[in-house]
Amino acid sequence: MEMQQITNPAAMTQKETPPSKRRKWLKKLYSQRHIQIMALLGIAWMIIFNYVPMYGIIIAFKDYDIIRTISEAPWVGLEHFKEFLSDENFVYIMKNTLGISLLKLLTFPLPIIFALFLNEVRSLRFKKAIQTISYLPHFLSWVVLGGILATWLSDVGIINEILMALNLIDQPISYLAEPKYFWTIVITSDVWKELGWSAIIYLAAITSISPEMYEAARIDGAGRFQQMWYVTLPAIKATISILFILAVSGVLNSNFDQILVLRNALNDSASNVIDYYVYYTGISSGRYSYSAAIGLFKSVIAITLLLIANQVSKKLNDTSLF
After folding, report:
1. Average per-residue pLDDT in the chain?
2. How far is Cα 219 from Cα 204, in angstroms, rounded to an integer?
């Protein structure tokens, strides 16, 4: 049987070329020129202040001092990293850093719980009052809050007066002079300052939940706690996962401002963390290459933790940063 080739005359003709994608893209870019200029300014700022200074990282591998330029400084390789790992202060610096950071990580659920309960408040006036009170400490610097805490925790401070009035202690305690109290003070003051502010993003995520989901849950007989557990928490799971990944990546960050304000020579054994040690060796002692190596060491650990947390989150609940 002879096979016949069927041809489509229309297919043989050349199709008309669509409008140039490049022209359409340029036209759209021009229509958004004001927004694009604002974005370009932000990108330029980030490149100048965040990426260009990264050239200075190479001093971690050099023996740099202020007399010579970075290019003139001799290469020493990994000597500064080896020195830090063999430093007699390494063990207790890492212990303090990890101890404070992991305890702060354990407080991660507190803003979620606060947002859940604040969302259940029906009185709008009372809700706004609670929000204002909880947000206010965030807008005060650690210099101000550090002065307040130093006054409250002094021998004649309000904390000692209350505890002595309740017969819980017999004599005043200098809390900031005792290393055993330092971690508790740091964690408690951090929660006090950031609890309300950290809850904002969770409250924003909760407001995006459809009211129909709550109505369906109420019809099924779910109470308020059941609605929080079975409706609210699953709906904001992605937000929680992203913020937890970022919190894990910053586990070596001990909030330098807070530590610098609250620490002193008497609580040094509990307050000497990586961030302060970098400041002390770099600024006070002038060992710029050594402090840069310590900072780079911390950054590498942070990136590693970020990648691990991101991968674990992707496997467990299919949510990740990238």
Report:
1. 88
2. 25
